[in-house]
Amino acid sequence: MTKKILLIDGNSLIYRAYFANAYRTKTILKTSQGIPTNAVYSFINMLLGLLKKESYCDIKVAFDKGKKTWRHQKMPDYKGNRQQTPPELISQLPLAQEFLDSANIDWFAMDKYEADDLIGTIDRYLEKHCPDYEIDILTSDKDLFQLITPKTKLLVPNSGTSDLTTFGLEELKAKWNCRPCEVPDIKGLMGDPSDNLKGVNGIGEKTAIALIGEYGSLENIYDHLDALRPSVREKLIKDKESAFFTREMATIDTDFAVPDLKFKTLNLNMAELGKFLTKYEMVSIFKRLGLTTEKVNPSANFDVQIVDHWESKFEDEENNLFVQNLEDNYHHGKIIGVAWSNKKGNFYWDWSQINAPKQLSFFEDQVLAPQIDEAFARFLLNTRCLKNTYDIKKTLTLLKNAGYKFAEKSFIYDMMVASYDLDPLVKANFPDHLSMVEENLAFLTDEEFFRGSTRQVRNLEINEKAKFIGEKAYLIGQTKTKILEKLKSANQLVIYEKIDYPFIFVLYSMEQTGIEIDVTELREQTQNIKNNLDQLERQMDQILGPELKSRHINYGSPKQLQDLLFEILKLPNLAKGSTGHEVLVQLVDEHPIIKPLLEHRKFSKIYNTYLLGFDKYIFPDKKIHTIFNQTLTSTGRISSGEPNIQNISVRDEDQKQVRKILVSAPGSEFYSFDYSQIELRVIAQVAPEPNLLKIFKDHGDVHEETARKIFNLKPNEPVTREMRRQAKVVNFGIIYGLSPYGLSKDLNISVSEAKKIIDSYYANFPAIAQYREKVINLAKTTGYAENVVHRQRRIPELASANYHLKQFGERVAVNTPLQGTSADILKVAMNNIYTDLQKNDRQTMMVAQIHDEIIFSIPNEEVKLVVPMIKTKMEHAFIDLLDLVNQGHLISIALEVSESHGKNWLELK
């Protein structure tokens, strides 16, 4: 029977764990005695996560022992360009080894050898002497790709120490187009800056992969120098010695003995492990393992009273409330329990064990009156009883669906939104937000506690649930002051208090309002698209002929398409097996099946995503009620899910028809208000760029005027449609850090032509070039970018040694202030409009925000009253935004808003 063993590159993973945690939290996790533990904490979490997924029979961990190895003997400055290791990380290497000892996991370190040499030797020993073993190697060091075999695979973290990618022979072939034995040759060419290995100067990863893919080895490349381009040949000749030396240094040594190497059945020593976790105060790990001790639990003295109804004596002036459910789509959510905490104590009311109130979920005509607790209902409506919670929007929805009414503004604090404003890169859930602001108060996820299934809820002891849910309410109150103080010290409190907190109620109103669906139109479109798909499949079957038709090819399966196109039909494999849209477009002239295949893919998306997809989200009120995610994007923009209403195409004629199913109520119409080129106006303002400002001030066509400048046209020369199109691509591309290569691809021109266009753009709009340089340099210094009201986004990629990650970081640094400012303009406009509608008791409802567009449902009798107000509020929103930081007087750009209306969304465009 096959056994699986896990080999871990200890140094690689502990380094990665340290920096990932430090970037995420902005602080170093320490014990109450000041001992740094952030790297060990992440390292242990990663290991336990793997053990939960896989049944490994044994684990071996390898570490570097000293600074000098056999490689240093050959090259004294090996790894000499690395930055000095932080003392907080150095001190945690022994802690990692102490953890492994306590857990009864073997670890190894040897003089003269690196961790990857040890792993390579253990791996080759297993391959040779233990035929019943399969080996997984956990590492972020791509040198270890050379160890891959049919039995050995690599597990490489994508971000931090989670989200692992498995690399076997096929994955290595797809990534580097090589065999494992050729990995050192590739490294010999492209070098490894992190190890101070030069390779061949001027030969990067792409060229190295291509050369080894063509010739297989350094020897074969140097035997065929005459066949290479002169520029490549000269580089290879110049650095031949370096290429072979780098290959030697990158080759893992597997030819030595590892002392005391024995294999045993994994048996974690829980008692010793508990002592280690207690010693270093690792609370959430302790809880995950089901261990208990007062010493490790920072809220060990937490006491909760279990009640079966509400009483006024439980209430206080300020209350921390947590309403627990398990569903991602809280519109369908069922309340499991309600917990609250205040100066009078901690309380838990279990709803899963009693006859809980009926969940309504948009049943407007519910016959059976919901069973409600009158005292709890009064508490929710009492504006003198203030409430703090986590995710106000979800909490209000769950309470409403349970039949309760509430005073919205008595909910004064949202821990989720406040934590998001503090750091939008941290995943928006209670445990991650908690650990971000209070490292010693780590917490289990709902999935971990409830065992990932609602079936388990009733089987849990009520005391367990009371403590778990009750602690959430308690910790909301415990962390509130610290979160708000952090926001204030980071100059971001105004974002939370003046923008994102009021925006919660705007989004709640939009979700509750929903959008009506024309069910008849939906059914008709669904059938028509199904007929189109069936016809296209018959057409493709005929093209393939009887022999291939008999294979019953699923045209929606990427794997079957890959086999059909590249193995059976032998079409050019342009992107290593990819059957993506761009690849298929390039293959249109290669075979008659490609054109109907592209049509089939388009109609399949319409059918599955928008038609069948929308059908399952229709509530009994004949509406869809999407969830607007306020804490998902890193720029401050909102997203939509369950279903996503923001990605319905307005360009493709067939996809556009889907918009016809979204209809207005009788006696009203949809009105769309769309900002014109808002991000270009923002960059004109923040750069500030005089030439761009003048175009907007003169109400010129920004793309036409840009084309006139970058193509150096005379006043009487016309701008062609193609020139304007290219200028439009450049205008918006500059915002996203457009490169010459990217522009050449977008415009289908050479890289040199693209570079000329970009250079001409910056020459004509020099302030934008200066702005770009300024924000990148500032982000490199501070580690983050921010918009005009100081909304921040960390950019750890700027510190990466990886060129492509660093370039991505620079693009983010340029784009974040622009997208973030645009997003906040939208939010301020929506907040102000919502306030006006509420104040004047209008029936007009905001129903959606899509990119730079806000959609309203406006009763016919209110059109003349609210349309001018909406446009005015939107046009003034940039000034209103900067007024929040006392800079509204600095605005020199006007925002323009276009308007359209119709009975359905199709008529809006």
Automatic annotation (TrEMBL):
Pfam families: 5_3_exonuc, 5_3_exonuc_N, DNA_pol_A, DNA_polI_exo1. It comes from the Bacteria. GO terms for molecular function: 5'-3' exonuclease activity; DNA binding; DNA-directed DNA polymerase activity. The keyword Protease does not apply. It catalyses: DNA(n) + a 2'-deoxyribonucleoside 5'-triphosphate = DNA(n+1) + diphosphate. The keyword Nucleotide-binding does not apply. InterPro entries: 5-3_exonucl_a-hlix_arch_N, 5-3_exonuclease, 5-3_exonuclease_C_sf, DNA-dir_DNA_pol_A_CS, DNA-dir_DNA_pol_A_palm_dom, DNA/RNA_pol_sf, DNA_polI_exonuclease, DNA_polI_H3TH. Its EC number is 2.7.7.7. Keywords: DNA damage, DNA repair, DNA replication, DNA-binding, DNA-directed DNA polymerase, Exonuclease, Hydrolase, Nuclease, Nucleotidyltransferase, Transferase. GO terms for biological process: DNA-templated DNA replication; double-strand break repair. Belongs to the DNA polymerase type-A family. 5'-3' exonuclease acting preferentially on double-stranded DNA. In addition to polymerase activity, this DNA polymerase exhibits 5'-3' exonuclease activity. This is DNA polymerase I.
